[in-house]
Design brief:
The complex is a heterodimer of chains A (about 290) and B (about 450). Chain A has nine helices and 13 strands. Chain A is an alpha/beta fold and about 290 residues long. Classes of the chains: A alpha/beta (about 290), B alpha/beta (about 450).
Chain lengths: ~290, ~450
């Protein structure tokens, strides 16, 4: 079932068209990658789903019915342009944001303490936000995005500004939240993380939806259906690309039977998401 | 409007501002400053007496001398047998500030020539004092020349001491003691206060909007609450800060003035000493008794009576109405402007259309006490952008009910209209990053659906 359905969503800013009849479904319990070059309309679409902006035309449905203002309590949003009140204390700030999402003060306090323990940052509670480093502030932002247990999380460039250690922590948390049943919309330019994390994607370019579907499906579609075999013999390492239709088992067997040959890998050759992205976007230029 | 979340926004905005050091300091320091100035001014008024002047009197007529009795600030010394001209050239040596020369009595006209010589010009008070004494001497001389029997008694009987009292009459015919000076000062103070409050707290709203935008916290906020809730929560929160400060200022000022006033003997000033007052006014002893009563009602006493007779409930009520709606009107516009910029430095050009009417209102308000019913004051108090400040400064002089109602209705109507327009601009503006906005952009945002 789709948690979000965009039905012919259009958004104009004066003369400028930011979204042109975008229709897509975001399946529940999956990680959904929202891709596109800068200025394509991703942020506008995210803001429409969040009800920050009202679409010029079209509708957004949430859990099978038109979305309402009350539904925003079930959404957690970490925008790309994110920040915190610099002069506020960490704990007060987190409490404030959690309560705005509909939590009672008591629930918010309890849930926040748990998250602070999980991230090992209990000692920050009374610190001022301006004393935090950028990475620390990012952790706090992540917590405030997810503390109210939203069923849908929208993370816009969640890894930007994180060092590799913290990025990994966030990656693990995203997977854990998915495990617990949450849906995550991930908007990013980092194609590696798309391949790694996303189940489905949508690519938006110049206000239009270019493609949407499962990641594997799309990669297969844009691949040339080859497999790659790497083996080593007395002469060294060899790579051979074979058509997918080849009977894999018999091919492998021929190599295995050869004297002094060691198979290193045998895998389906999939195009990188990065290449698909560039291909689709540059095609749009022409 | 979701009141739960709006309430959370209001309380954060309020607590955040009230807990600030700058708020605590201004709340404490302003009343101390105001009270200090008031008490200081009173003390100065009580203690600045003109230095005693020594005046030599050369009287050839012989009728003036008995009237030249010393007053608080003038010491007369009668010189006999010394020609005026020789005194004139030796004034400083003889320790005189001036010499009064009364010529020989003109029997036919029943008058005396009188001249006053001094190296430095004298103040009005002293000249009037001397003049009054000479006139009295001549008048008494003339009356005496009629040789009326029992004259002293007659004079005592006819002595009049009429003092003009001003009253204001309400429609119901109720009369109240009034004093134009008190109204003028009150009018100015009210106008200045309202101007200060609107400017101060209006720009506080703007800074708060800019802070959320430049720290990039705003997008997270509007994903939880509607932009209009955020804007009005902020405006209401800061309005409560203003009211808190206002209340604390009044309480603290009154407390400090009454304690400080008691310490320096405020009551002495308020009561006044009739004898002292009378003598400086050049009134002779005979008049004192009659004057005493009048003096009690005059001066500071009249001020106090006028003050207590003012319709304070109405004044404070209307001050709050004009403050609240004037503030709301300007605060929503300030919020719209704040939404268009990312740092305070960029606001100047955008602010101009707001600061001009505010300054204009301030100038008209300062003019209002001189001509509270002039057409400029009238229109200034009707047009919503200037009406809060101008009307409040016209108020002490009395304003017809229809003008008040018209002005308040227009003010509220304009507020509603502009709040709606500002909210539209604000909604778009807070999410616009990286570009310096102009009024043209604001207009574009306003038209956006």
């Amino acid at each position: 079932m789709a948690i979000i359905e965009c039905k012919n969503v259009c958004k104009n800013f004066g003369e400028k068209v930011a979204l042109d009849h975008v229709s897509l479904e975001i399946p529940e319990g999956k990680i959904f990658g929202l891709l596109g070059p800068n200025g394509a309309g991703k942020t506008t679409l995210i803001r429409i789903i969040n009800r920050i902006t009202i679409p010029t035309d079209g509708e957004v449905w949430f859990n099978g019915r038109p979305i309402t203002q009350a539904d925003v309590e079930k959404i957690g949003y970490m925008p790309e342009e994110r920040g915190l009140y610099r002069k506020m204390k960490v704990g007060d700030q987190a409490m404030y944001l959690a309560q705005l999402k509909g939590m009672s003060a008591r629930d918010a306090q309890q849930a926040l303490k748990e998250w602070f323990v999980r991230f090992g940052i209990q000692s920050w509670w009374d610190k001022k936000v301006e004393e935090l480093s950028k990475g620390m502030a990012q952790k706090l932002q992540f917590i405030t995005t997810v503390v109210h247990k939203p069923s849908l999380m929208i993370l816009d460039e969640p890894f930007s500004g994180f060092d590799p250690v913290n990025a990994e922590i966030i990656r693990q948390e995203i997977l854990r939240l998915k495990e617990e049943g949450a849906t995550i919309i991930l908007s990013t330019h980092n194609m590696e993380s798309v391949e790694e994390l996303c189940d489905d994607i949508a690519l938006i370019n110049k206000a239009r939806l270019v493609i949407t579907g499962g990641v594997e499906e799309i990669r297969r579609k844009y691949g040339n259906n080859n497999v790659e075999l790497v083996w080593t013999d007395a002469d060294g390492r060899h790579t051979e690309v074979l058509p997918r239709e080849t009977d894999g088992a018999s091919t492998l067997r021929t190599y295995l039977d050869k004297e002094g040959v060691q198979i290193n890998s045998y895998k389906e050759l999939m195009p990188r998401m990065n290449d698909i992205f560039i291909k689709l976007v540059t095609e749009g230029e022409e | 409007m979701n009141w739960r979340t709006t309430g959370i926004i209001i309380s954060r905005e309020y607590l955040n501002k009230v807990k600030k050091k700058s708020f605590i300091w201004t709340t404490l320091l302003v009343p101390i400053l105001v009270a200090g100035l008031t008490i200081g001014l009173m003390a100065v008024m009580m203690n600045t007496k003109e230095k005693v002047k020594n005046i030599a009197v050369v009287d050839e007529s012989g009728i003036v001398v008995p009237y030249m009795t010393d007053s608080e600030t003038i010491h007369y010394q009668v010189l006999e047998g010394i020609p005026v001209d020789s005194v004139k050239v030796r004034l400083a040596d003889m320790g005189f500030d001036g010499v009064l020369s009364i010529g020989a009595l003109d029997e036919a006209e029943k008058t005396v020539p009188a001249d006053l010589f001094s190296p430095k010009p004298f103040g009005m008070e002293l000249v009037d004092n001397i003049n009054a004494r000479i006139n009295r001497a001549v008048e008494d001389y003339r009356i005496a020349s009629y040789n009326i029997e029992g004259l002293d008694q007659i004079l005592k009987d006819v002595k009049a001491n009429v003092r003009l009292h001003s009253y204001t009459i309400s429609d119901s015919g109720e009369e109240k003691v009034s004093e134009a000076g008190v109204y003028s000062i009150l009018s100015m103070v009210l106008g200045i206060f309202l101007f200060m409050f609107i400017t101060l707290f209006g720009s506080m709203v703007m800074s708060s909007v800019i802070e959320e935008k430049s720290s990039r916290v705003v997008e997270v906020l509007v994903s939880s609450v509607k932009a209009t809730e955020l804007m009005f929560g902020k405006i209401i929160g800061i309005a409560l800060v203003a009211l808190t400060q206002f209340l604390l200022w009044i309480v603290l000022s009154v407390a400090i003035i009454s304690i400080g006033g008691a310490a320096i003997g405020f009551d002495k000033l308020a009561g006044g000493n009739p004898t002292e007052m009378a003598s400086t006014m050049g009134v002779d002893a005979e008049q004192l008794e009659a004057a005493a009563q009048a003096a009690d009602e005059g001066g500071i006493a009249t001020v106090l009576t006028t003050l207590t007779n003012l319709p304070w409930g109405q004044l404070i009520g209307l001050f709050l109405v004009y403050f609240i709606f004037g503030y709301l009107l300007y605060a929503s516009m300030f919020a719209a402007i704040g939404s268009a910029v990312e740092n305070e430095g960029d606001t100047q050009q955008l602010q101009l259309p707001l600061t001009i009417p505010l300054m204009l209102a301030y100038i008209i308000a300062l003019y209002a006490f001189r001509a509270p019913d002039s057409s400029i004051a009238f229109w200034g108090s009707i047009i919503p952008f200037t009406s809060p400040i101008v009307m409040i400064s016209r108020l002490p002089f009395g304003v017809p009910a229809w003008e008040l109602i018209l002005s308040i209705v227009l003010l509220i109507g304009t507020f509603v209209l502009l709040a709606w327009a500002s909210a539209k601009i604000y909604k778009v503006g807070i999410l616009m990053f990286g570009k310096k906005s102009t009024w043209k952009d604001l207009w574009k945002w306003f038209k956006q659906k």
